[in-house]
Specification:
The complex is a heterotrimer. By secondary structure, chain A is mainly α. Chain A is built from eleven helices and two strands; from the N terminus they run ααββααααααααα. Classes of the chains: A mainly alpha, B mainly alpha, C alpha/beta. Chains A and C meet through helix 7 and helix 8 of A and helix 2, helix 3 and helix 6 of C. Chain B: GO terms for molecular function: phosphate transmembrane transporter activity.
Chain lengths: ~325, ~325, ~260
C-alpha cells in the first residue's frame, strides 16, 4: 500500500521537478524580454515625440513637465550624456587595460609561486568592492589631493594643444570632469579586467610555454610570442567586459563628473553620463521626464548589449572562462 | 700583452675549448636587455596598480573607524544633529538582500540544474541550455541602473506599472535580477564538477533523476554552490543605483517589507556624502567601511568554501 | 670525454628534497638513459641539465659542469644554457601554429640570418618527417598524429642547432609503432648530438642507450621522507647483464626494490 503510494508520488515528483527547473531556465528569457519590452514601451512616446535620431544627436536637454503621454513640452537631445559616457569609458579603458595586462602577466608569470594565489585572491576581492566606495574615495580623497593638482598641471602644460579645433586640455579647471571620472572608473575596472585576463592567460598550456623556454626564449619572449597570441581574443573580450562595466557605471561617475547638461571637447570640463544623469534626476522627475530618463536607459542598454554580446561571442569562441571571475 | 690575451681567451672559451656560456651570441645580449626591461615594466605596473587600491583601503578605514560604534548600528540618522547612525540602512539592506537571496538563489540554482542535469538529454535541450547560458552571460553585463528603471516601470510606477510605490520588495526584485546570472553561472560550474560516477551510482540504486539531483548532486556541490551565491550577495549588497528608483531611501526605520520607501546602507552613504556638514560625511565613511567589511567577509568566506569545493576535482 | 660532469647535485622543492647527492659524467655524442621507478627523481635530474627546474622554483645545490663551465654559475643566463641544450617533453607540445612556424620558432627568436626554408627542411628531414609533411607545411602542427607531433617537436629542438638533446620520456604518450620510429631516430641523431633520455621503459633504455643510470627512492621511515638517489651508473650492457647492485638487479629483473 505505502509502496504504491510512494511510487505514485515519485511518478508525480519527478516530472514536476523537471518542469520546475525547465521553467526556471526559461525565466532568463522572460526577465530579459520583460526588461526590454517594459522600458522600451515607457520610453516610446519620447522617441516618437523627439525622433530617435534627434534623441541621439541633439545636444539640448530641457526636461518638460507634462503628466500625459501626448502634450510633451521638453526638448530631449541626449548627446551630451552619450558623449560623457563614451569619453569617460574610453579614458577608463585606455588607462586600465595596459595596467591590467601588466598586472595579470606579473601575477601569472613573474611573481614568486607562493605569492601568486594571494595576489589573485586580492585582485578578485578588489573586483568585488562596491562602486560607491570608489566614488567616495575618488570624491573626498583623490580629487582634492591628486586629481585637482594634476588637472591644473595638465591645463597649464598642455592647455595650448589644439588639434584642428579640438583642445583636449583647455581650462578652466573645476576638478569634477570627464577626466576625473574616467580616472576613478579606471581604478574601479582595473581589478575586474585583471581578474578576467589573469584567468584567460592561466589556461594557456604550461607545456607550450616550457617548449619555448627550452628553445632558449626569455621570459618576455614566452609572454609575448606564446601566451599573448593564444590569449588574444580572451583579452579583447575582457576589455570589452570592462568597457561594458565602465559604460554602465553610475554612482562613481555621478560623484566625479560634475553633472552639467552641456558637453565640451575639453577633458577637463564637467559633463554628465547617461547612467549618472538618470540617477541624479530621477528623484525630482515629472512623469514626462521619467519617460525621457527611461529613453536614456534604453539607449544605454543598447550600448552595453552591443559591447557585451560582442565580448561574449568572443569568449565563447575561445571556450569558457569559469563563471565567477567573469562577474 | 700576453696577459690581456689570455684573459680574453679564457673569457671566450672554456678549458675544454668550447665557447663559453658567458659569451652572448648574436642577438642574445639585446634579448636579455629587453627581458630585463619588460620585467621592470611589469613590476612597476604592479606597484602602480597596488598603490591606489591600498590608498582606498587605508582611507576608508581611517575615516570610517571613527564613526563606527554601537550607536551607529542601533540609532537612526537625524537630519541635522551630530548623533545617530545607519540603523535604518542596515535593516533596510537586510530586508532587501533577504528577499533578493530568497528569489535569486533558488531560481539561479534551478537554472543551473536544468542546464547541467536536464539540458544535456536531448538535442533541443542542449540548444536551449546553450541559449540560457549565453543570455545569463549577457545578463551579467546589463547596467544595474537599467534594471532599476525596469523595476520602477514594472512595479513602482502607477502609470503603466503595477503601482505599488517604492518599497523593499521592489528593491529585492532589482537586486535579485542582478544576482541571478551570477548565481546561475557559478552554480553551473560547480555542478559540472560533480563526477558522473556519483550520479550513475545513485541511478544504480534505483533513484529517480530528481532524487539523484537533490540527494546526491546538490549535497556534493554544496560548498561550491554557497561560494557562488555569496559572491553574488557581495555584489548585490553594494549596489546603489537601482535602489534609488525602487526603495527610494529612508533615514528612519521602516518595518514593512511591502509598503513604504525603505532605506539601505549604500543609499545612505550616497546621500550622506552629498551633505554639507561634517557629521553626515563621517557617517558616510562609517557606512562605507561597514559595507567594505561586509563584502570582504563574504568574499573571503566564499573563497574558503570554494577551496574546499575544489577538492572535488 | 664527457659533455656533462654532474657533481653532488641536490634538488629541493620548498621543504621537499627530490634528489640528493647525484654525481655522474655524461659522455659526448652518445645516448645516456636515466631509468628507475616513479618518484626516483630521474626527470628532476634531467630538468636540471638545461635549468628547466628554474621555472618550478626548485633549489639546486651542487654543480653541473657543461663543457668546463658550471651552468648554475652566477653569471650564466639560463636562456643561453637552453639554447645550447635542447629538450623534448613527455607529451608532444607543438605550438598552435603551422608546421613550418613550429620549426622556425627557435631560429627566428635567435635572429637566424641564413636560409630559413632550408633550415626548416633540413630539420624536418633529420627527423624523417619531411616527406610526410612537405606538402602541408602550412597546416597546424597540432593536426598531426601523436608520433608525428613528437618528431616535429624534436625537429623544433634541433632547428636551433643545440649541442645536447634532453628527452623526458619522449615515447610515453605514443603507440608502439610511433615509439619504434622515435627510437630509430634517437640512434641516428646520436652521431651529431649528445642525448640524455629519461624512460620508464627498460627495454627502450636497453635498445637505444650506451650508458644507463639507475635511480631509486631512498625511504627514510623515521621522517617519512622519500628522496631520489643514484644507485648505479655504468654501460648499458653492464647494467642490464651484470648489475653491481642488488637493487638494480631486482629492478631490471622485475622484482623491483
Amino acid at each position: 500500500m505505502s509502496a504504491t503510494l510512494s511510487r505514485q508520488r515519485k511518478r508525480i515528483a519527478d516530472p514536476a521537478f523537471r518542469w520546475f527547473v525547465t521553467l526556471a531556465g526559461a525565466s532568463v528569457f522572460v526577465i530579459l524580454a520583460g526588461m526590454v519590452i517594459r522600458t522600451t514601451n515607457d520610453a516610446w512616446p519620447i522617441f516618437q515625440y523627439q525622433g530617435f535620431f534627434s534623441f541621439l544627436t541633439g545636444d539640448q536637454w530641457l526636461a518638460g513637465s507634462s503628466r500625459t503621454d501626448s502634450d510633451f513640452t521638453g526638448t530631449y537631445g541626449a548627446w551630451p550624456f552619450i558623449y560623457g559616457t563614451l569619453v569617460t569609458a574610453l579614458i577608463a579603458i585606455v588607462i586600465a587595460l595596459p595596467l591590467a595586462l601588466c598586472v595579470a602577466f606579473y601575477i601569472n608569470q613573474l611573481a614568486p609561486k607562493r605569492l601568486r594565489n594571494p595576489l589573485s585572491y586580492s585582485v578578485e576581492m578588489l573586483a568585488a568592492v562596491p562602486s560607491i566606495i570608489f566614488g567616495m574615495w575618488g570624491f573626498f580623497w583623490l580629487l582634492p589631493n591628486v586629481l585637482r593638482p594634476f588637472l591644473e598641471w595638465l591645463e597649464s602644460t598642455f592647455g595650448w594643444i589644439n588639434l584642428a579645433g579640438w583642445k583636449p586640455f583647455e581650462g578652466p579647471v573645476f576638478g569634477s570632469s570627464y577626466l576625473a571620472a574616467g580616472i576613478v572608473l579606471a581604478i574601479m575596472i582595473l581589478p575586474i579586467i585583471t581578474a578576467i585576463v589573469r584567468e584567460v592567460i592561466a589556461v594557456n598550456p604550461v607545456d607550450q610555454q616550457h617548449a619555448a623556454y627550452a628553445l632558449g626564449a626569455t621570459r618576455f619572449e614566452v609572454m609575448r610570442k606564446v601566451v599573448l597570441p593564444s590569449s588574444f581574443s580572451g583579452i579583447v573580450a575582457a576589455s570589452m567586459l570592462g568597457l561594458g562595466r565602465a559604460v554602465g557605471e553610475t554612482v562613481a561617475v555621478m560623484m566625479l563628473i560634475g553633472s552639467t547638461k552641456s558637453w565640451d571637447g575639453s577633458l577637463l570640463s564637467a559633463g554628465d553620463s547617461m547612467a549618472a544623469h538618470i540617477a541624479a534626476r530621477f528623484g525630482e522627475a515629472t512623469p514626462e521626464t521619467t519617460k525621457a530618463l527611461m529613453a536614456i536607459g534604453v539607449v544605454l542598454f543598447l550600448f552595453t548589449m552591443i559591447i557585451n554580446i560582442g565580448a561574449r561571442l568572443l569568449v565563447w569562441r575561445i571556450g569558457r572562462v569559469s563563471g565567477d571571475a567573469a562577474v | 700583452m700576453s696577459t690581456t690575451d689570455t684573459t680574453d681567451t679564457t673569457a671566450k672559451t672554456t678549458e675544454t675549448g668550447h665557447r663559453s656560456l658567458l659569451v652572448k651570441q648574436g642577438n642574445a645580449g639585446a634579448r636579455a636587455v629587453k627581458n630585463r626591461f619588460a620585467t621592470g615594466v611589469l613590476t612597476a605596473a604592479m606597484a602602480i596598480a597596488v598603490v591606489p587600491l591600498l590608498l582606498i583601503i587605508w582611507e576608508v578605514t581611517r575615516r570610517g573607524i571613527g564613526a563606527i560604534h554601537w550607536d551607529f548600528f542601533t540609532t537612526d540618522e537625524p537630519s541635522y544633529r551630530q548623533e545617530g547612525g545607519y540603523r535604518a540602512g542596515f535593516v533596510g539592506t537586510a530586508y532587501v538582500m533577504g528577499g533578493a537571496i530568497l528569489m535569486s538563489v533558488p531560481l539561479g540554482l534551478a537554472t543551473a540544474i536544468y542546464v547541467v542535469e536536464y539540458g544535456r538529454e536531448t538535442r533541443a535541450g542542449r540548444r536551449l541550455s546553450d541559449l540560457i547560458r549565453f543570455f545569463t552571460d549577457v545578463m551579467t553585463g546589463i547596467p544595474s541602473i537599467f534594471v532599476g528603471l525596469f523595476v520602477y516601470g514594472f512595479l513602482v510606477s502607477s502609470t503603466g506599472g503595477l503601482g505599488q510605490g517604492f518599497n523593499a520588495f521592489a528593491g529585492s526584485v532589482a537586486i535579485a535580477i542582478i544576482m541571478l546570472p551570477i548565481v546561475a553561472r557559478s552554480s553551473e560550474e560547480m555542478l559540472k564538477l560533480v563526477p558522473d560516477e556519483w550520479r550513475n551510482a545513485s541511478y544504480a540504486l534505483g533513484a529517480s533523476k530528481s532524487r539523484t539531483v537533490l540527494t546526491t548532486v546538490l549535497p556534493a556541490a554544496a560548498p561550491g554552490l554557497a561560494t557562488g551565491s555569496m559572491l553574488a550577495v557581495a555584489r548585490g549588497a553594494g549596489e546603489t543605483a537601482p535602489l534609488i528608483m525602487t526603495i527610494l531611501g529612508s533615514q528612519y526605520l521602516v518595518s514593512s517589507y511591502f509598503e513604504g520607501a525603505q532605506g539601505a546602507v549604500p543609499l545612505q552613504i550616497y546621500r550622506g556624502a552629498r551633505q554639507q556638514f561634517e557629521a553626515g560625511i563621517e557617517r558616510a565613511w562609517g557606512g562605507a567601511l561597514s559595507l567594505f567589511l561586509l563584502v570582504l567577509i563574504l568574499v573571503v568566506l566564499a573563497r574558503w568554501l570554494g577551496s574546499k569545493a575544489n577538492k572535488l576535482k | 670525454m664527457s659533455v656533462f660532469d654532474v657533481q653532488g647535485l641536490g634538488v629541493a622543492y620548498g621543504s621537499f628534497t627530490a634528489v640528493k647527492d647525484i654525481s655522474l659524467e655524461i659522455p659526448r655524442n652518445k645516448v645516456t638513459a636515466l631509468i628507475g621507478p616513479s618518484g626516483c627523481g630521474k626527470s628532476t635530474v634531467l630538468r636540471c641539465l638545461n635549468r628547466m627546474n628554474d621555472l618550478m622554483d626548485a633549489t639546486v645545490s651542487g654543480k653541473i659542469i657543461y663543457n668546463g663551465e658550471d651552468i648554475y654559475g652566477p653569471e650564466v643566463d639560463a636562456a643561453e644554457v637552453r639554447r645550447r641544450i635542447g629538450m623534448v617533453f613527455q607529451r608532444p607540445n607543438p605550438f598552435p601554429k603551422s608546421i613550418y612556424e613550429n620549426v622556425a620558432f627557435g631560429p627566428r627568436l635567435n635572429g637566424f640570418k641564413g636560409d630559413l626554408d632550408q633550415l626548416v627542411e633540413e630539420s624536418l628531414r633529420s627527423v624523417a618527417l619531411w616527406d610526410e609533411v612537405k606538402d602541408k607545411l602550412d597546416d597546424p602542427g597540432t593536426a598531426l598524429s601523436g608520433g608525428q607531433q613528437q618528431r616535429l617537436c624534436i625537429a623544433r629542438a634541433i632547428a636551433v642547432q643545440p649541442d645536447v638533446l634532453l628527452m623526458d620520456e619522449p615515447c610515453s604518450a605514443l603507440d608502439p609503432i610511433a615509439t619504434l620510429k622515435i627510437e630509430d631516430l634517437i640512434r641516428q641523431l646520436e652521431s651529431s648530438y649528445s642525448i640524455v633520455i629519461v624512460t620508464h621503459n627498460m627495454q627502450q633504455a636497453a635498445r637505444v642507450s650506451e650508458m644507463t643510470a639507475f635511480f631509486s627512492v631512498d625511504i627514510d621511515d623515521e621522517h617519512g621522507m622519500r628522496t631520489g638517489a643514484l644507485v648505479e651508473y655504468d654501460t648499458t650492457e653492464k647494467i642490464f647483464n651484470n648489475p653491481g647492485n642488488t637493487r638494480t638487479e631486482d629492478y631490471i629483473s622485475g622484482r623491483f626494490g
